[in-house]
Every structure is written in C-alpha cells, then in structure tokens.
Amino acid sequence: MQKFHFHDDGIYPNNKLPVLYYKNAFEHTDTMQEVFKSNHWRNSWVNGIFAYHHYHSTVHEVLGVLSGHATVQLGGPDGEQLEISHGDVLVLPAGTAHKRMQQSNDFQVLGAYPDGMSFDTKTGKSGEYKQALQQIPKVPIPKLDPVTGNSIWS
Questions:
Q1: Which of 23, 41, 83, 139 could form a disulfide bond with 112, CB atoms 3.0-4.6 angstroms apart?
Q2: What are phi and psi of 30, to 5 degrees?
C-alpha cells in the first residue's frame, strides 16, 4: 500500500489524512463489492470517474477498478497523476480532489462509502471551499479499511 499526502491549495481542501493506494488489491474483481460491504463500505455504484476536479466534503470514498485502466490526478491541478488499473483500489479521505485524465474504453470503477453514508460533490466553485472546510473535520473516521478490514488511518 502506498500513501499520498495532498495539501490545501485554497480551492481544493484535500485532507490531512493520506490517500491510500492498493496496487493489485483484487485479482478477481467480482469479489470487490462483497469485501467492501463486509468492511462496512456501502451505498455503492459502478461507473467511471468524472473528467473534472471534484471532491466530497461529507464522506470518505473508496474507488476500486473493476476493469480497464486510467490516469487519475489526485490533489487538484498541482497534484499527483497516478496510473490505476484492474484490481487497484484508492481510498480518498473527504476533501481529496480527484479527476480522470484519460481512460481505456472498458474502464469502470466501483465506488462506496463508510456505513453507506451519502455523498456530496464539490467542484471548486465559489463558496464551496469555506463550507467544505467546516464539513470535512466533522466526517468520522471509518472503523475499517475497505480492503483489509483492519483499522484505517491509525
């Protein structure tokens, strides 16, 4: 597992907690949803990743790559670009900006949230940042890591 830290740039707050990147976390992605669910990450969906910078200020998010590959940028316009592919998992703390830069035609991710919490989507528009700074510290730390089932961010 790799960890990435991103700083607040005045538009995208990011988080003091690190992004967790599990390379090849799942050999068989047909078990991914059940593993996430058993570790209390629910309210799942299957789709892609938006092609614009965005973040969630009310919840942490897990993204597991079901198929294909993509380049994502984490942390905002000055952040890190990362190649993700089948079986990889990203755990994004609330406030972490993310954007899909390019993708294969078969790219799909499974997203989920701790205890099935609802999510918001912020894009860096005027007025969002100040509200996000108030919301992000209130987001509870999940009890379990969505991949390992161990304590997360401890």
A1: 41
A2: -70, -15
Number of Cβ within a 10 Å radius of residue 120: 15
Residue 110 in any domain: the answer is: yes
Residues 48 and 100: their CA atoms lie apart, in Å, by 8
Q: Domain tally for the chain?
A: 1
Residue 60 sits in a domain of what CATH number? 2.60.120.10
Query: Model's pTM, two decimal places?
Result: 0.96
Contact call for residues 92 and 63 (beta carbons, < 8 A):
yes
Distance CA 123, CA 79 (A): 15
Q: Cα(13)–Cα(93) distance, rounded to whole angstroms?
A: 11
Give the DSSP H/E element, type plus range, for residue 2.
Answer: strand 2-6
98, 72 Cβ separation under 8 angstroms: yes
The answer as to whether 109 is a domain residue is yes
32 vs 90: CA distance, rounded Å: 13
